[in-house]
Specification:
The chain contains 8 helices and no strands. The protein starts with a helix and ends with a helix.
Length: about 140
């Protein structure tokens, strides 16, 4: 049952970082407060799942940019995110809990390795903050 809980956290974190909504922060907070697992392990699992979900969204941006103009895919409001990433570059990817930033990073063909590291850092910081608020 324990591994099922960890897979649930991973899955929630993955889904939360795609274009679908999710609640991985709430699940992490609950699991941390239950104190059945090491907090570091929970943060690591959530971070990895969320980062992999973000990279899925990043790749969607790459593939979509090849076939469709930006206006056909994103509303004007969401196109603002692309402009933010254009303006702020990698710094914007630190705030990748907004999946549209990951999509924009892919759309703009930001280098994969650097994007991955920045996204991972942003996700880890966010999950560490959530976890340590609920210890």
């Amino acid at each position: 049952m324990d591994s099922l809980s960890l897979w649930g956290l991973f899955s929630s974190a993955f889904i939360s970082s795609t274009l679908a909504p999710g609640g991985s922060e709430a699940i992490l907070a609950y699991m941390v407060s239950e104190n059945n697992f090491q907090t570091d392990k929970l943060v690591l699992i959530a971070t990895i799942g969320n980062t992999l979900g973000a990279l899925t969204t990043w790749w969607l941006g790459i593939f979509t940019a090849k076939k469709y103009p930006l206006e056909a895919v994103l509303s004007e409001k969401k196109q603002i995110a692309v402009n933010i990433v254009k303006k702020w570059g990698y710094l914007a990817l630190l705030f990748s809990w907004l999946p549209i930033f990951c999509f924009a990073g892919g759309w703009l063909k930001m280098p994969l390795i650097i994007s991955t590291l920045i996204i991972l850092l942003g996700k880890a910081i966010r999950y560490l903050l959530v976890a340590y608020l609920f210890i």
